[in-house]
Amino acid sequence: MTTHAEVPTRSLSDRATATTIGILYLVGTVGGAASLVATGGGLEGPDYLASADELGGGLAVGAFLVLLMGLSLACIPIVAFPVLRRISERLAVGFVVFRGALEATWYVVTAMTWLTLFRLAGDDAAAGDGGIVLFTAGETGGILQSLVFVCGATMFYLILHRGRLVPRWLTWWGLVAVIPYALVAVLGLLDVLDVLSSTAAGLQAPLALQEIVLALWLIVRGFSPRPEAH
Question: Where do the TM regions start and end (predicted)?
Fold first, then answer.
């Protein structure tokens, strides 16, 4: 009889799962980067609607790209769940909730907000307080979404680490990189740091790079074939 410590090597279905996760990560990354290109780096400042008016159709394109990014990333926990639940069902469910349901909801709201701005941008009557409210709500919501992301990412890396699904250096990289990422969100909420500044981007860069490396690893190598150690 096979004991819990004698888990067999990863199956072909696990290999397909790893590849799919890697592809979804890359699609999400490309979608996010393309949305910044389409919107010229994003919307910012008190003249939120004036900026939206200048962007024109680029804002609508950016909204759809954000939606593509969000849905791609939200699919990762769902695809990964059958594999991750073998390591820790509790963490796997948390991953689905935070990186799936909650994060996907925010991306949908962001896309809807950008599309609303696109439709209202040329309306001078809506350009006053409406622009300020949308800007403040969007910025605050984005910071809170970062905290949701950090919680979900931490759960994911803990499962990968515990199950030795990928090399330990890769999971430690993720676990350490979430710390400065979370710091940006906390300082942003306290209005100490501009979350759109180059400093914030530098603090978030290690985790962004880690996700790209993780995606490529999963596509090329898949999950580790070694048995899990408990």
Answer: 21-39, 59-84, 104-122, 172-190, 202-220
